[in-house]
Write a structure and sequence with these properties.
This protein is mainly alpha-helical. The chain is built from 19 helices and 12 strands. A 3-stranded antiparallel sheet has the order 3-4-7. A 3-stranded mixed sheet has the order 11-10-12, with no helix packed on it. The protein has a two-stranded parallel ribbon with strand order 1-2. The longest helix has 17 residues, at 397-413. It binds one RNA strand through β6, β7, α6, β12 and α11.
Length: 482
RNA sequence: GGCCCAUUGGUCAAGCGGUCAAGACGUCGGCCUCUCACGCCGGAAACAUGGGUUCGAUUCCCAUAUGGGUCACCA
């Protein structure tokens, strides 16, 4: 390949990173890295009304966090800046006028009233709304006169009235549409800024983008972009359109429900690597029987042919599992560091956090599960004696009571209160009594926690709680069973 | 509604004319075990429907159904 692969991620600064958008960025990044090419970041802020404070910073932060590093962009520069569209307005105006001269566009002076009226009539007669080409029929003199008189204008694309336009997409194949179905869209708005339809073509060309990766919602306007490239006499990029990520059949992931953005997931205790790994496989498959991949592995494996055409439903179950896989790969220290905010949220008592982490490490799917799992540490919850009844352990309220009564003096005698001592002492007791482990240890676990399920068993919980608290809970349990 | 596109288990998906139709998540059963989880073993579960083409269709073509996208001075 003579030309270096150059891809771009061109988000508009909306204030949050939609997971589908992030996936598009990931694919663009992967394609560039796979081919030793370049990945550029461009901010599409031509809609001034949608400007959101801090949104651009969020984009930088997300890309940096996830490791999708860009080679060119507003914050680091590059040979084809500016990388912020609102700062390129002169460029678009120049090209728009150039296009008018080439016959690919025309000035339009229609005001909002006329446009609204036109649309109303079309809707009433059940005709698809479309600009009627009114201003395309203006003579050069009329245009000059209006321009001179300072009448506000936009520049519209001039679509051939007949014929068809075709393009090739790497995932969807060849697509052909009738030009008659295409509208003379606005290219340059009356505020002098371009619409997306125009800016993306001009910028992709000027920035030497070779592969355009974007959502399939742009599929239907791609013929218009092709017409633009043709009118300018520019080379076409390779098109790669990807289908959307759905929440469930018929429903998109939504911002409102707080389940759509990267920040939402991070906030819920998901690991960035797990998120990236999961979304990489949502709509793309390397065709291997492996599902855990590092970014580097993905970059080596990525191939357009693995992108699927149909929309993919986001499966939170699978993300949970994958997040658990990543959590288990953390070292105990890393786990503790990441879990700390959640520990502090739920545990005020003094405990050995490393010991706690050892219990939680294999049992945590996402960090936000931690508070609920450790809520018994600060305060023994109210519980029912029914908890002591367990068929598999062959325990009853009565057997539990005598078990705990036997445990009490043993525990009181333990000097060095740690897991090993507790284990040895209780094992000795069990052997001496000639019963199964569960007969003693299961009731102890319930007495320590008051919960049906806990991270770790009786010995571990007692070690964690400390001698005083353990004895206190033990006595309380015996009393409760009496 | 017009136009464009898609359709393999509940979900992600492999498959690219001949397979007992992979794998993963989830689910179910079992083992391990001081509960739960982790781990391990095993099970159930799919080619939307109807026509063609072909010796042979999940794979190719056409309908139907369902789903997605798009029809802005938003991107």
């Amino acid at each position: 390949m003579a030309n270096k692969v150059r891809t771009r991620f061109a988000p508009s600064p909306t204030g949050y990173m939609h997971i589908g958008n992030l996936r598009t960025a990931l694919y663009a990044w992967l394609l560039a890295r796979k081919n030793g090419g370049e990945f550029v970041l461009r901010i599409e802020d031509t809609d001034q009304e949608r400007y959101v404070e801090g949104a651009v910073e969020l984009i930088y932060k997300t890309l940096a966090d996830t490791g999708l590093t860009h080679d060119e962009g507003p914050d680091i520069g590059g040979d084809y800046g500016s990388y912020i569209q609102s700062q390129r307005r002169n460029i678009y105006a120049k090209y728009a006028k150039d296009l008018v001269e080439r016959g690919g566009a025309y000035y339009c002076f229609c005001d909002k009233e006329r446009l609204d009226q036109l649309r109303a009539v079309q809707e009433a007669s059940k005709v698809p709304p479309k600009y009627d080409g009114h201003c395309s029929r203006l003579s050069a003199e009329e245009v000059e006169a209006k321009l001179a008189a300072g009448v506000p204008y936009v520049i519209r694309q001039k679509i051939p009235r007949e014929g068809t336009t075709s393009f090739h997409d790497e995932v969807f194949g060849d697509i052909t549409v009738d030009n008659a179905t295409l509208d003379d869209n606005v290219l340059l708005k009356s505020d002098g800024l371009p619409t997306y339809n125009f800016a993306n073509v001009v910028d992709d060309h000027l920035m030497h983008i070779t592969h355009v990766i974007r959502g399939s919602e742009y599929l239907s306007s791609t013929p218009k972009y092709n017409l633009l490239y043709q009118a300018f006499g520019w080379a076409l990029p390779v098109y790669i359109h990807v289908s959307p990520v759905m929440k469930e059949a018929g429903r998109k992931l939504s911002k409102r429900e707080g389940d759509a953005s990267y920040e939402d997931f991070i906030g819920k205790g998901y690991l960035k690597d797990a998120i990236i790994n999961y979304i990489a496989l949502l709509g793309w498959s390397p065709g291997l029987e492996q599902d855990i991949f590092t970014l580097d592995e993905l970059a080596a494996l990525f191939d357009i042919s693995g992108i699927s055409k149909s929309p993919a439903i986001f499966d939170i179950n699978k993300l949970n599992w994958m997040n658990g896989e990543y959590i288990r790969k953390l070292s105990l220290d890393e786990f503790t560091a990441m879990a700390m905010p959640y520990y502090r949220e739920a545990v005020k008592r003094e405990v050995n956090y490393n010991a706690l982490s050892a219990l939680l490490h294999d049992r945590t799917e996402k960090f936000s599960d931690i508070p609920e799992a450790v809520d018994f540490i600060d305060a023994l919850p109210e519980y029912d004696n029914e908890l002591y009844v367990n068929k598999k352990m062959k325990t009853t309220a009565e057997s539990s009571k005598s078990a705990l009564e036997a445990v009490l003096p043993v525990m009181e005698r333990i000097g060095e209160w740690d897991q090993a001592q507790l284990h040895d002492a209780l094992s000795a007791l069990i052997e001496q009594m000639g019963v199964k482990n569960g007969q003693i240890l299961f009731p102890l676990r319930v007495a320590m926690s008051g919960k049906k399920f806990t991270p770790g068993g009786g010995v571990e919980l007692a070690a964690l709680l400390g001698k005083d608290e353990s004895i206190k809970r033990l006595k309380k349990a015996i009393q409760k069973l009496s």
